[in-house]
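ingest -> validate -> predict -> emit
validate: passed (alphabet ok, no gaps, 185 aa)
predict: started
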Amino acid sequence: MLPLFDTKWAALRGGYRVPYDPSAALSKLGQGHDTWDELWSELHHQGDVGEASYAAVPHLVEIAAKSGQRSWNFYALVSTIEIERHRTSNPALPGWVADDYFMAIRGMQRLALNDLPLQDDPLTVRVILAALALCRGQVKLGALISFLDESELDEFVDEQLSWADLYSPRESLSPSGLPTFGPSL
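emit:
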């Protein structure tokens, strides 16, 4: 993993295709400060990611693993970087970060499997499911889950499954295992 104090960070490009050094934001995030807006803005821009984005992933996973609570931002940003890594217009994953990157993706899978049973927020559940699909190499499924918002999901299940006509809101289980009543979507 590229140390946060390494001068190589200054030459790496982020989502805007210009040099961006995320080491300060990553360091602050590791100290409990909220730097998600900066990291989102600089590591990903309209489908573009760069070497700084890839090099940040192992740090994001390490920080998340040390944190008692993981924000939806963690799963969503790492998933977005992994999805966009496959876009042909983005740079290939450099060899010098590849092992750490893929080890981090495996680490995210462990965190996601631990966190999923504890979540009931729809956005957090959705980004964890997307992350799990990506960790298992299911890039298209991960992208689909990541990029659909609640209204698009409603529209999709209505069109594809005639949800409103064929299904009714019934008892479902909450993350705690207790029944809940109402729409399960």
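The CA atoms of residues 19 and 99 lie 23 Å apart.
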